[in-house]
Amino acid sequence: MTRSQIIKLQQRIGTSPDGFWGARSIAACQWHLKQLAPLNNPWPASSQASLQSFYGSPGDESQLVALDVMAYGVEYNGEPVRSIRCHRRVASSLGRILAGLSAIPEGRAVLRRYAGCYNDRLMRGGLLPSLHARGAAIDLDPDTNRLRQSWPSSATMPIEVMEIFAREGWTCAGAEWGRDAMHFQATS
């Protein structure tokens, strides 16, 4: 992001618009997104025990449903996506998120660069199951929001997209971890 884009982002999240993305801006952004979340966040904590209790075992395809996404303009490698396999407990929420994204220009742009939801695998570089292995995470626009790419200094995930996810209580990795801005997960 340019300095002027960071200033605009800082104004949106309610912190001093100085054009420098540091600890104060990070905290303000995290607070801003948490304020948008439902009062009683419906999602589990990200501990393996909480995830197991709420979602069940990773890789359990009996918990997956096919969410129809034809109306939202979701594309993978330039081809329309008909449905997304996700955990049954996130399907309604994810449907509302995708509908919300399809209604704004920033959201339509990232929906054209869908990169996956269910994928029975471990966390990148780790030994624990990914939230993708439970169908409770989605990746969007990976080309400019990679795993080790800092948000918002070089990753480009729009705050408007993060706000839509936050309103449903989802964790926005870019704002929460400062990297991996393509990743959103249904955890509190």
Can you describe what's shown?
The protein has one domain (37-185): Muramoyl-pentapeptide Carboxypeptidase, domain 2. The protein has 7 helices and 8 strands. It has helices at 3-13, 23-36, 48-55, 91-102, 105-111, 159-167, 173-177; strands at residues 64-68, 75-76, 79-80, 83-87, 114-116, 137-140, 171-172, 183-185. It has a 4-stranded antiparallel sheet. A two-stranded antiparallel sheet has the order 1-4. Strand 2 (75-76) and strand 3 (79-80) form a beta hairpin. Helix 2 packs across helix 6 (159-167) and helix 4 crosses helix 5. The two termini are 27 Å apart.
Q: Gist?
A:
The protein has helices at 3-13, 23-36, 48-55, 91-102, 105-111, 159-167, 173-177, and strands spanning 64-68, 75-76, 79-80, 83-87, 114-116, 137-140, 171-172, 183-185.
How are the SSEs ordered, and which strands pair?
Elements: H1 3-13, H2 23-36, H3 48-55, E1 64-68, E2 75-76, E3 79-80, E4 83-87, H4 91-102, H5 105-111, E5 114-116, E6 137-140, H6 159-167, E7 171-172, H7 173-177, E8 183-185
Antiparallel strand pairs: 1-4, 2-3, 5-6, 6-8, 7-8
Helix pairs in contact: 2-6, 4-5
Mind describing the biggest β-sheet?
A: 4 strands, antiparallel
Q: Give the low-pLDDT segments.
A: none
Q: What is the CATH third-level topology name?
A: Muramoyl-pentapeptide Carboxypeptidase, domain 2
Domains (count): 1
Q: Which radius of gyration do the C-alpha atoms yield?
A: 16 Å
Number of H/I helices: 7
